[in-house]
UniProtKB/TrEMBL annotation:
<dbReference type="InterPro" id="IPR004017">
    <property type="entry name" value="Cys_rich_dom"/>
</dbReference>
<dbReference type="GO" id="GO:0016491">
    <property type="term" value="F:oxidoreductase activity"/>
</dbReference>
<feature type="domain" description="Cysteine-rich">
    <location>
        <begin position="5"/>
        <end position="85"/>
    </location>
</feature>
<dbReference type="InterPro" id="IPR051278">
    <property type="entry name" value="HdrB/HdrD_reductase"/>
</dbReference>
<keyword id="KW-0560">Oxidoreductase</keyword>
<protein>
    <submittedName>
        <fullName>Disulfide reductase</fullName>
    </submittedName>
</protein>
<feature type="domain" description="Cysteine-rich">
    <location>
        <begin position="144"/>
        <end position="234"/>
    </location>
</feature>
<dbReference type="Pfam" id="PF02754">
    <property type="entry name" value="CCG"/>
</dbReference>
Length: 286
C-alpha cells in the first residue's frame, strides 16, 4: 500500500530519526510512504487571527496537492498534523477561508484530503493485532510512558484525533508491542514548546515535572510524536542533572523508533544515536 507523505521541515534536519523510523517501520508492515513532490513548510503554527489567510496558504497548498495524488496524506510531526488538520477544518467549515484560499492558490479544493497520522495507520490500516504478532513480545518487560503534548490532541473539535485530555491510542500501540504502559497524569501537559528559546528556566521546570511524574511511577522510557517535545524532554535533562544530582534521567524516543526496535529494524536506521539520553541499552538488538 502506497500513501502520500508530508515529512515537514524538521524531519529533514533535527528530527531525521523520526522520519527514518516512520518510513522504515511502516515499510516493514507493508505501507510505503511516498513523499509529496515539491512540498514546502506547513507554516508551523495555525494563525491566531481568524482573518490571517496568508498564514494558511502553505498548508492549503499541501492539502490541495495531496488531493490530486491520492486523497490521503500522512504526516507524523505533531505540529504539522495540527496545522494541516486545522486548516483543512477551516476550509470545510468557513466559506470565507474556502473562497480566499482557493482564489489565491487558483485551485478548486474543498477540504477533501484525509489527513492521517501514523498512529492511525498502525491502528486502522495495519492493525494492532498484526503489529502484536510481528513484534512477538520483543519489548516484554519494558515500562513505557506515553507523552502526547498539546498539539496532537487539541483543539479537539478541529483536530479530532483522540480524547483531548485522556488519549489512549499510543498506549494501545505500546501494549501491542508487548511493553508495559505506565499511566501518569502529565501525558498531555505542555512541555513549554518554543518558550525554550526565550525562558529556559520556565521550560526546564515544566520538563522536570513531566519527567518526574513518569519516572516516579516506574517508567523506563518515554515516547512522543512531536520533535519539539522530544527535544525539550531529552536535551534539558543534562541541565537538570547538573543542578540536581538526585535527578533520574530517562530516554525519550519517538514512538516509531519503539516500533522499529520491536520489529528488529537495525538501530542505525532508527536514528537512536541522535538522542542526548541514549535509549539503546533498553532496546533489543540496539
Amino acid at each position: 500500500m502506497k500513501i502520500p507523505y508530508f515529512p515537514g521541515c524538521t524531519l529533514h534536519s533535527k528530527a531525521r530519526g523520526l522520519d527514518d523510523s516512520t518510513r522504515d517501520s511502516l515499510a516493514a508492515l507493508g505501507v510505503e510512504l511516498v513523499e509529496l513532490p515539491q512540498w514546502t513548510c506547513c507554516g508551523t503554527v495555525f494563525p491566531l487571527a481568524q482573518d490571517n489567510y496568508m498564514g494558511m496558504v502553505a498548508a492549503a497548498r499541501i492539502l490541495s496537492d495531496a488531493a490530486k495524488e491520492d486523497g490521503r496524506l500522512v504526516t507524523v510531526c505533531s505540529f504539522c498534523y495540527n496545522v494541516l488538520k486545522r486548516v483543512n477544518h477551516a476550509i470545510k467549515t468557513n466559506p470565507e477561508v474556502h473562497r480566499k484560499l482557493n482564489d489565491y492558490l487558483e485551485v478548486d479544493y474543498h477540504g477533501e484530503t484525509q489527513l492521517l497520522h501514523p498512529l492511525e495507520l498502525f491502528k486502522d490500516q495495519v492493525g494492532f493485532d498484526v503489529l502484536q504478532e510481528r513484534a512477538g513480545g520483543a519489548l516484554n518487560g519494558l515500562k513505557v510512558a506515553c507523552y502526547y503534548g498539546c498539539m496532537l490532541v487539541r483543539p479537539a473539535a478541529e483536530v479530532s484525533f483522540d480524547h483531548p485530555d485522556n488519549p489512549t491510542i499510543m498506549e494501545e500501540l505500546v501494549t501491542a508491542l508487548g511493553a508495559e504502559v505506565v499511566e501518569y497524569p502529565d501525558k498531555t501537559t505542555c512541555c513549554g514548546s518554543y518558550q525554550v528559546l526565550h525562558d529556559n528556566t520556565l521550560v526546564k521546570q515544566k520538563v522536570r515535572d513531566i519527567l518526574d511524574s513518569a519516572t516516579t511511577r516506574g517508567a523506563e522510557a518515554i515516547i512522543t510524536s512531536c520533535p519539539l517535545c522530544q527535544f525539550n524532554l531529552d536535551w534539558l535533562q543534562e541541565k537538570i542533572a547538573g543542578e540536581d544530582s538526585s535527578f533520574k534521567k530517562i530516554p525519550v524516543l519517538y514512538f516509531t523508533q519503539l516500533v522499529g526496535a520491536a520489529l528488529k529494524i537495525p538501530p542505525e536506521k532508527l536514528g537512536l544515536e541522535q538522542h542526548y539520553v541514549d535509549p539503546r541499552p533498553l532496546l533489543p538488538g540496539a
